[in-house]
Amino acid sequence: MPPILLVPIPPLQPETLATLARGIVERFQIAVLTDGSKSIDPAPAYDASRNQYDSSLLLSILLRLHSAQNGKILAVTEVDLYIPVLTFVFGEAQLDGKAAIVSVRRLDERFYGLPEKSSLLEDRLLKEAIHELGHTFGLLHCRRFECVMHASTAVEEIDLKSSSFCPECARLLDQKNRMGENG
Ligand SMILES: [Zn+2]
Ligand SMILES: [Zn+2]
After folding, report:
1. pTM of the predicted model, to two decimals?
2. Cβ contact 78:11 at 8 Å
3. Domains of the chain
4. Active site annotation includes 132
5. Distance from the CA of 123 to the center of ligand 1, in angstroms?
6. Counting ligands in written order, which one lies closest to the CA of residue 161?
7. pLDDT band for position 181 (cuts 50, 70, 90)
């Protein structure tokens, strides 16, 4: 399996990416590379009327910049993301595709006026990152509330699920990976 490439979109704390990389390696058993060399400017995706960034546009910029990349690409940012039909998104992914993006903005307790909790933030980010990567591996949403592929519309739902795939999703992921290896 080609490594997963993690790409920071500023602003982002460097430690955030390093901690996330370690968590992803444990879950996917795939090497993770981080690349901040080709810096992505989120400005073209900014919507002043919403004070948010167009998540799909950032995905397309990401893909253009890393078109030579073989494996999955995950962008991580602190900017607040949206897609037109929703108030916000925690992240977005290309189903059975190459790229995904996650935002830490609404995973941070400080967004809700609460004191900072860095370990909770790390947990939430890992879950959302694995969730979006799961989509790039072709996984759909799962009914089981404890499964990482369960859809979350609020942080409380993220906190309820684990960072692991349920047996059914794990089986599907395994199957897709083997199909990928056979061409
Ligand atoms: Zn999802
Ligand atoms: Zn599942």
Report:
1. 0.95
2. yes
3. 4-181 (3.40.390.10)
4. yes
5. 17
6. 2
7. low
